[in-house]
Amino acid sequence: MTEPIRRSPCPINFALELFGDKWTLLIIRDLIFMRKKGYGEFMESPEGISTNILADRLRQLVDNGLIEKYPDHNDKKKFVYLLTEKGEALVPVLVEIIRWGVQYDTQAKNAIPIEVSARLKSDAMGFIEETRKSVRKERKQYLKWLAS
Q1: Domain that holds residue 135
Q2: pTM metric for this prediction
């Protein structure tokens, strides 16, 4: 597979071309913090993504190696989506976006639990590492189930 042609070699441009629309990071947010895995779960997010946009963004995330698609162990007609190592590496980025949003938006302050907000202020690095470990553990458990 050849590398896609990008507007520039700038790392910010690379990131924006990968997840610079308004839906992609919300899907990744849901995977990381809401523990959503299935198409129907993503559809329940409060932002109200349309089915065609969701399907397209999930495909793009798979194609770009940020998530992987697996059969749902409860219903073989459905699929679950899990973050890859590349996707998991976005945890610190999303945490910093959350911290920025909480600092500069009064509505954002009320959108996350008080204990999470306090933890982000007192130990953001610890929160990031715990979140990453949790994502890895969940992925490992699911892949172990698939292998059995």
Answers
A1: 11-147
A2: 0.88
